[in-house]
Amino acid sequence: MNQDNQGALRRCWGALRRPSVKYSLLTLLVAGFFSGILFWGGFNTAMEATNTMEFCIGCHEMRDNVYVEYKETIHYKNRSGVRAVCSDCHVPKDWTHKIIRKIKASKEVWGKITGVIDTKEKFEGHRMEMASREWERMKSSDSRECRNCHNFDAMSEELQRKTPYKKHMAAKAEGKTCIDCHKGIAHRLPAEFEEDEEEE
């Protein structure tokens, strides 16, 4: 860095550290407060826009693969008309876990940009890896996103069929979580998973 650039940098830093002679402290605080609100509102609006179904299936990797499968499940169409969209299952509701999830999800975007999963064949080649990563995330959070809608304590013995009710109560007693039994509930299971099941 030459001396002219260093001098400009020092002058700029000095101006930032010097108290304002033109504006009062109150004006600066009010402007900062409203700027913060605008920034936070814009940030959250953008964050919520990435939680929509339209955003999620904007890439053909999702639209042509997992979205097609999801449309054939009870989470898409059912007797009560309640639909769980991508973010209901894959994005935590609380802010801290949501941000962490968004950062980790950028790996899928990177996979698209670099061409790792940009064709159906490549996507299928990585399906087990991606599914395993998601199953592990869900298991480690005790299927937190599933529990936004499903709860062992809210299950009615009178309303639920006997076999599922017994299995759910046994799972609760054993400390199991939703994903332990419900892999493939919204998307097709990877071929490798099905092969492993047959071997057992």
Written description of the protein model:
The structure is a single chain. The mean pLDDT is 88. This protein has helices at residues 3-17, 25-49, 53-56, 60-70, 86-90, 95-113, 120-140, 162-173, 178-181, 191-199. It is elongated, with a radius of gyration of 24 Å. The protein is mainly α and 200 residues long. The protein has two domains: 24-149, Multiheme cytochrome fold (Orthogonal Bundle); 151-183, no CATH class. The longest helix has 25 residues, at 25-49. The protein has ten helices and no strands. Helix content is 62%, strand content 0%.
Short description:
The chain is mainly α and 200 residues long. The protein has ten helices and no strands.
What structural category do the secondary elements indicate? Answer: mainly alpha
Given as residue ranges, the uncertain stretches (5+ residues, pLDDT < 50) are: none
What's the total helix number?
10
* Assembly form of the protein: single chain
Largest sheet: none
State the domain count.
Answer: 2
Q: For the terminal residues, how far apart are their CA atoms?
A: 65 Å
CATH topology of the largest domain: Multiheme cytochrome fold
Question: What is the CATH architecture term of the largest domain?
Answer: Orthogonal Bundle
- In the CATH scheme, the class of the largest domain would be Mainly Alpha
Shape: elongated
Beta-strand residue fraction: under 5%
- Could you estimate the helical fraction of the residues in percent? 55-70%
Strand tally? 0
Q: Write the H/E string, N to C.
A: HHHHHHHHHH
From the alpha-carbon coordinates, what is the Rg to the nearest angstrom?
24 Å
On the 0-100 scale, what is the average pLDDT? 88
